[in-house]
Amino acid sequence: MATNPSILLAEDDPNLGLLLAEFLKKKGYEVAWAHDGDQALDLFVKGHFDLCVFDVMMPKKDGFSLAKDIRATHLDVPIIFLTAKSMEEDTLQGFKVGADDYLTKPFSMDVLVARMEAVLRRTHSDKSLPALADEIALGDFLYYPAKMRLVFQGNEQKFTPKENELMKLLCENLGRPVSRSYALKLIWGDDTYFNARSMDVYMTKLRKLLKEDPRVQLMNLHGEGFRLSVD
User: Fold this and answer.
1) What is the per-residue pLDDT across 110-167, written as a single tens digit (0 to 9) for each?
2) Confidence of residue 11 (pLDDT cuts 50, 70, 90)
3) What is the pLDDT of residue 66?
4) How do strand 51-55 and strand 79-83 relate by DSSP bridges?
5) Residue 48 bridge partners (DSSP)
6) Cα(39)–Cα(24) distance, rounded to whole angstroms?
7) Which of 175, 173, 171 is nearest to 142 (CA)?
8) What is the Cα 142 distance to its own chain's centre?
9) C or N: which end of the chain has fewer Cβ atoms within 10 Å?
10) Which residues, in sequence order, are bridge partners of residue 104?
11) Could you give phi then psi for residue 31, rounded to 5 degrees?
């Protein structure tokens, strides 16, 4: 991947499309904006893209059909869907055609960028998004991802593999939201109710550990997920 990841944006709403394209460019992305599904497919065939962001409801070719056409020849390029629909069957259809993530309108542009960065990290592990350091300072904590350890004033806490994966994901997105759905799919494999309850238990334990330093905040974000930040 190039220094600046290349994004194919397909959004038929001219106002939202312009806002998204300009916002992503300011965040350091190269953006090609298509106004309908046919134009998006044409741009995809002619170019190279690290990630696709597709509106579902578009003229000429909807987002699901567009994704199917792309997946027929390119299995690896990640796809995030944007939609005004919130019905469960629409979400399921998105994942069946190969979605890597899914946002329902209206959404925060910062949340979209956080989702994009998380998907790019997962699919381009050696590319432009930086890997975690061997030692990460979080207030008075020192976190060692490879060793699965958290140290506070000389006291060491050993993480389980899932605790460590959650902590790594939070640190990769320090100061930015991490969606519940993405965390569940990435670490547990799916976002079932029982896995969600399991993740909540792990998050409660992490939050309890991090309370030793009040500057370190692991917050629940209603309707979004979690955010780790350091004041």
Assistant:
1) 889 888 888 887 766 544 444 567 899 999 999 999 899 999 999 999 998 889 989 9
2) very high
3) 92
4) parallel
5) none
6) 20
7) 171
8) 25
9) C
10) 83
11) -125, 130
